[in-house]
Design a protein that fits this description.
Length: 544
């Protein structure tokens, strides 16, 4: 399973430790360069499988890696002249009209849809991530007609699952060929990705399916539901490590594989370029067309993560160094573990090519903070609140809706290192007197603040409770004088009041700025919560 004489012994030990630490049932890792697969290994419940067992492809849900393939299909049509990235989509599909945040008519383009700069909400009213009824792409897209955008198009990036799905719908309408057929005939087939497709209901011959598990609000595990999403171009890809390795190799080779031209090199370069937003024409990192763009040890990176009902995926390419990694596993909320594994895998490849750098996670066990209590407290950046807690020498940060364990790498400098987040730099900044006065997490700086005085607002109690389907709903609770909403089992947002029963999701995150509205019955009891048109009925009990 190894390529050449490259030594990945240390990496294997790290993967065994991570899969045991987070109780990941099954995990595949593939490393590639432009010439082929450098390594493919599979780990089952903390132990590496034999080469014979790992030789049978396992199909995982790859989640939002789907967006990369959808973008490639759209860009192939752009190359043919069938579509233009900057033409308003209503010229292709007259019914696709939207309004800006003030209610005025506004247009969006394919470029904005593929780069998450269209200002759209995260989910569509029909076919949302929570919708298990199996609507068609057309039904999901048409539920967005006339929708009011959260942001003005081009203002800044806001992640959306319906955006790339609308782009696939436009592709299908203009060309007259179903979007999934175009991906099958133009990408999967020619690249030999014979175990990949866009429905969880079908396991290709010669491969085996993997069960998957999720974690509820109380920490208990349950089997993940199995249904196709209503936005399949954005999140329903089912694939194997071997197939995604073929896709990565083609991208690293400039869009060519075995004499087949997937995309022109100049098209790939355009996709790998961060799309400008107003006020920041050339940010260092962000979204290209269908992929996230960033850096690792000064190397340019492109790729995408994925998470969907019991599965977690991570694909990253170092495009100038010509190497890439993909990690797939079958436990929800483990994007941090995947990111740590692929980062350490790519670092291993770089180091064995003579590159010298400081590893993101350092070596050995985490160094505990000498005085952890001096970091504890509340920090603010506008409406975004970051809370730091210290216990037994370890520090945790709650920000952007999730709790993150911090690993110390230097004085006052840490990286996140846990199941959900890994590799994000967190640095505490001191004032002239040497006291910790602020923190910087990724690109956001938070100033230390006095915690709000706890108060009780009995009027908020009527909104508290569980809403939506048992496989993935909302939990609304009270924290002091404010409401918080946990969504998709893992993300927790503060809610800001917009009116008597209307609230906005505050802070950063995928639902930032969206509106949550509560609907009561004739007796005044709250029966429903509506998030940007997605309806969640009030319920009792946990996951079934």
């Amino acid at each position: 399973m190894l390529g050449g004489s490259v030594d990945f012994t240390g990496l294997g030990r790290l993967i065994e430790e991570e899969t045991r630490r987070h109780s990941i049932p099954l995990l595949d890792l593939a490393l590639v360069d432009a010439e082929g697969v450098v390594l493919h290994r599979r780990f089952s419940r903390g132990r590496e499988e034999s080469a014979e067992a790992a030789g049978v492809p396992v199909v995982y849900r790859a989640g939002s890696i789907s967006k990369m393939l959808t973008a490639v299909a759209v860009m192939r049509a752009v190359e043919r002249g069938a579509l233009d990235l900057d033409t308003p989509i209503e010229r292709y599909c007259s019914e696709l009209v939207f309004t800006d945040p003030t209610g005025a008519p506004i247009t969006v383009t394919l470029r904005e849809l593929l780069s998450h700069t269209a200002g759209l909400q995260r989910e569509s009213p029909v076919g949302s991530y929570f919708d298990s009824t199996g609507p068609t792409v057309e039904e999901s897209v048409r539920s967005m007609i006339g929708a009011r955008l959260v942001l003005v198009p081009g203002a800044r990036a806001k992640y959306s699952n319906i955006g790339p799905t609308i782009a696939a719908y436009v592709l299908e309408r203009v060309t007259g060929v179903p979007w999934d057929r175009q991906i099958e005939d133009g990408i999967l087939g020619p690249l030999g990705m014979k175990h990949s497709g866009f429905s969880i209901r079908h396991t290709p011959p010669g491969a085996r399916a993997s069960g998957s598990w999720m974690t509820a609000f109380d920490g208990s595990a349950f089997r993940a539901p199995r249904f196709d999403l209503g936005t399949p171009p954005s999140g329903n890809l089912c694939s194997t490590a071997e197939d995604l390795a073929r896709f990565m190799r083609c991208l690293l080779a400039g869009g060519e594989a075995g004499g087949y031209r997937l995309l022109r090199p100049e098209t790939l370069r355009a996709m790998e370029t961060v799309q400008p937003v107003s006020g920041d024409p050339a940010p260092a990192g962000g979204f290209g067309l269908g992929m996230a763009v960033g850096t690792l040890h000064g190397c340019r990176t492109v790729g995408h993560g994925g998470a969907v009902y019991g599965y977690s995926a991570d694909l990253l390419l170092l495009i100038d160094d010509g190497i890439g990694a993909v990690v797939l596993n079958n436990l929800d909320c483990t994007g941090g573990a995947n990111a740590k594994i692929r980062t350490c895998a790519l670092e291993t490849m770089l180091s064995q090519r003579g590159r010298r750098f400081e590893p993101v996670f350092g070596n050995g066990e985490p160094n505990l903070a000498e005085k952890p209590g001096e970091y504890a407290g509340e920090y603010r950046s506008a409406d975004d609140v970051a809370e730091v807690t210290a216990r037994d020498g370890e520090i945790s940060l709650r920000s952007v809706g999730t709790l993150k364990r911090l690993r110390r790498v230097d004085t006052d400098r840490f990286v996140t290192d846990d199941r959900m987040s890994a590799g994000m730099t967190v640095e505490f900044l001191r004032d002239g007197a040497g006291r910790v006065g602020s923190l910087r997490a990724a690109d956001t700086t938070y100033a230390r603040s006095e915690p709000a005085v706890p108060t009780t607002d009995a009027a908020l109690e009527r909104f508290c409770g569980d809403y939506g389907p048992p496989h993935a709903g909302l939990r609304v609770s009270r924290k002091g004088s404010r409401l918080v909403c946990r969504i998709e089992w893992m993300f927790e947002y503060d809610l800001g009041a917009l009116g008597d029963s209307r609230f906005a999701f505050l802070g950063h995150g995928m639902y930032e700025g969206e509106e949550l509205r509560f609907v009561a019955d004739g007796a005044g009891r709250v029966r429903e919560a509506q998030l940007s048109g997605v309806r969640f009925q009030r319920r009792e009990g946990g996951p079934e």
